[in-house]
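Researcher: Please translate sequence to structure tokens.
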Amino acid sequence: MQPKYAMVIDASKCFDCKACIVACQLENGVPPRFERDWIKHAAGGQETKLQFQPGNCMQCDEPSCVEACPVGATFKSRDGRVLIDPSTCIDCGNCVSACPYGARYRHPTKHIADKCDFCQRRLKRGLEPACVVTCPTRARVFGDLNDPSSKVSKLLKQGGLVRVINPKVDTKPNIYYMEGTMPLTWPAEPTLPGNVHMPLGFWRKSRT
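Model: Translation complete:
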């Protein structure tokens, strides 16, 4: 059976060490001042302590970026990932604007759109993404949803996972979070990476 890759994130284990971001940049040649993954900060309820929410491309089942691409350079692969064909991309930026998670950027020297692909070169060698293996607290779990013995399949079967869904468009993301670990309150004008503005109702639970 064709694999379908996904990720489960336990944000309560994240302490903002940024190892995942550095590992991603080194593995994928991400240029300075750009990121394929991120760690979002938010105040935790009435406490002054910050909570940290790791994230990356949601590898959506119904990606708005694919619909926005005028030349078919962005496409949905059979293994569940949203990929970019660099030989076809014309660097128009439509997909960057269309992503509700701000997960894309325009590469300043390659002149193509770029984003997380779950470390494609590592996957071909049978390895997990760099952000997964680098995290010192194992906040990220990666695997094949079509493999019942994989860690992600077992976590989904246990239940209690939630997905981040834009209230304006449900792209059916394949990044899941442990329930109760996301920030409980947000600033008056919360933003996603890339300064994509979303209303306070952004964190809507979608049960698996």
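Researcher: Any highlights?
Model: The CA atoms of residues 28 and 133 lie 15 Å apart.
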